[in-house]
Write a structure and sequence with these properties.
mainly alpha
C-alpha cells in the first residue's frame, strides 16, 4: 500500500501559508525568524519548501505557523484566494 506522502506533494498547507505570509507583507526569512522566537526552528529554505509543498509539516510546526500568521490552524487547510 502506498503511503500518503509518497508523491511529490508533501503537505496540504503550503499554498495557504504562502498566501497568508504575503498578505501580511512578511518575507520567508521574517516568518522563519518569528517561528524561531516560538522555539520552532524552520529555516528560510524550509519555509520555501513548505510553501511549494515539497516538505512535510509537523503538528508543532503547523500550530506555530498558525500562531505567527494569526489564524486558527484549520485556516491553513483552506485554499488560498485566487
Amino acid at each position: 500500500m502506498a503511503r500518503i506522502i509518497d508523491g511529490e506533494i508533501c503537505n496540504l498547507v503550503g499554498p495557504a501559508v504562502r498566501a497568508l505570509r504575503r498578505a501580511k507583507h512578511m518575507s520567508q526569512q521574517q516568518l522563519s525568524n518569528r517561528l524561531e522566537l516560538l522555539g520552532v526552528y524552520v529555516c528560510r529554505g524550509s519555509v520555501s519548501r513548505i510553501e511549494d509543498r515539497s516538505r512535510t509539516v509537523t503538528d508543532i510546526e503547523l500550530f506555530a505557523l498558525a500562531k505567527v500568521l494569526d489564524v486558527p490552524p484549520a485556516a491553513l487547510f483552506d485554499p488560498p484566494p485566487n
